[in-house]
Specification:
Radius of gyration: 18 Å
Mean pLDDT: 79
Distance between the termini: 41 Å
Shape: globular
Number of helices: 9
């Protein structure tokens, strides 16, 4: 009984610890040498989970954001400062000013191009805890893609059919196998 009471008392502390932003190693800020005319989101076109979420974000942003799988030769030609290894880890958004962001921040910034979807970016910018939680959640999903895909398929059953129907016009090949040694 006492152990259970201690566990109950420690649970809020664990949550608070999880939400506390951890210091990140010094990240090199990347600036695009040739900034695009409108924001460009680079994503993993070989990942069905990624393609499903890109499609959802694309519906929210319309023509205000260009979505380009990093496997498309144009992606690395246009943005040679980004390596394939970096692009495998997270989506990257290149803004018209040349600023490059990735992960949850990239998602929030791309959605904010739609005036009705600016609240996630406001929260991200105003709350260090929200930003840290969003980045941790993004990293967790990226590192556990099979689990995230299963949850997506459960919560959005149409994701399986939509991925099969819609990847061709994104320049993706759903039949292509991922590179050896790449986490899925």
């Amino acid at each position: 009984m006492r152990a259970m009471a201690l566990d109950t008392l420690q649970r809020p502390l664990r949550l608070a610890e999880m939400l506390r932003p951890k210091p990140q190693p010094d990240e090199v800020l990347i600036q695009a040498a040739k900034p695009p005319a409108k924001p460009v989101m680079l994503f993993d076109g070989d990942c069905g989970l990624c393609v499903f979420w890109i499609r959802r974000w694309q519906r929210a942003t319309g023509e205000r954001v260009e979505y380009l799988p990093f496997q498309d030769r144009r992606a690395l030609e246009r943005f040679p400062e980004l390596s394939r290894e970096q692009l495998l880890l997270a989506v990257h958004l290149i803004e018209p000013g040349g600023t490059v962001c990735r992960g949850a921040e990239a998602v929030c910034r791309s959605l904010a191009t739609n005036p009705a979807r600016q609240w996630p970016l406001r929260w991200y910018q105003k709350s260090p805890r929200f930003a840290a939680l969003a980045e941790r959640a993004y990293r967790f999903v990226a590192e556990h893609r099979p689990l995230a895909a299963a949850l997506t398929d459960t919560l959005w059953p149409e994701s399986k059919q939509r991925n099969a129907d819609s990847t061709q016009d994104l320049g993706c090949n759903p039949q292509r196998k991922p590179p050896a040694g790449r986490p899925r």
